[in-house]
Amino acid sequence: MSRVLSNHPSVTCHVRDPKVWKEGDRYYMIQGARTREDQGVELLFVSPDKEHWTYLHQVTTREKFGCMWECLEYMEVGGKSISERYDFH
User: Are the beta carbons of 25 and 48 closer than 8 angstroms?
Assistant: First the structure.
């Protein structure tokens, strides 16, 4: 799974540590990554079946915070899930 999803053009081959969870009828996945500009980012994907993934977007900080993000974790913020905070459906 990681090999296929790490082909995003803005990141290097350093993509790892997928975290997958189910929300409603969809699966979400975050992966830690390193951009070509040596900045740590999180890549967010969605899937209906854990087999076919669609890239949604990249999450990062305003100021550089490390060159590689690893061992990411998902949590709700303010009692809202990620799909409630952002319109991903």
Answer: yes
Q: Tokens at residue 38, please?
A: 């040596």
The 8-class DSSP code of residue 77 comes to: B
Q: Is 13 left (phi over 0), alpha (psi -120 to 50) or beta?
A: alpha
Residue 22, class by beta-carbon neighbours within 10 Å (0-12 exposed, 13-18 middle, 19+ buried)? exposed
Quickly count: other Cβ atoms within 10 Å of residue 82's Cβ.
Answer: 19
Q: List the structure tokens of 20.
A: 């997958």
Q: Which two tokens stand for residue 63?
A: 């100021």
- What are the pLDDT digits (tens) for 21-50? 998 899 999 888 888 888 888 888 999 999
